[in-house]
Amino acid sequence: MIKLNCLAVDDESLALDLLEDNINKVPFLNLVKRCKNAFDAIETLQNESIDLVFLDIQMPGITGVQFLQSVKEPPMVIFITAYQQYALEGFDLDVVDYLLKPVSFDRFLKAVNKAYDLHNLKLKSAQVTEVEEKEKGLVYETDSIFVNADYSLVKVKISDITYIEGLKDYIKIHLEGSTKPIVTRMTMKAIEEKLPTEHFFRIHKSYIVAMPKIESIRNLKIKIGNMQIPVSEHYSEEFFKRIGQS
Question: CB of 38 within 8 A of CB of 64?
Answer without folding.
Answer: yes
